[in-house]
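Sample intake sheet
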Amino acid sequence: TALNGKEAVAAFEKSKVGEYAAILMDVMMPELDGLEATEQIRGLEREDAKTIPIVAATASAFEDDRIAIFKAGMNGYLLKPLNDESVYTEMMKQIFPEA
C-alpha cells in the first residue's frame, strides 16, 4: 500500500517486473494525485509500465472525471464506497480479460 501518489510510483518503480498483477489507485491523494501517479507509471522505462492494469477508485461519477481517468492511462474505475465484491470483480476482469 502507498499513502500518496509519490509512494505509489516509487513502490512500482522499485518492484520487480511482474511483482504486481494490478494497481488499485485512489484518484484523490496528497502530494501526487492518482491521475498524475498513473501518468508517471505509464512513462517509466520498464516492460510492464504500459501494460499493468491500473484501476481508479473515485467518488466522482461525472463524465469529465471518467474521461480524465482513461486519458491518464487507467484501465477502469470503481466508485466509492468500495466493497469487496466490486473490487474483486473489476480486478479479475483487468487481470484475466479473456476469462
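Comment: The CA atoms of residues 34 and 40 lie 10 Å apart. The two ends are 27 Å apart (CA to CA).
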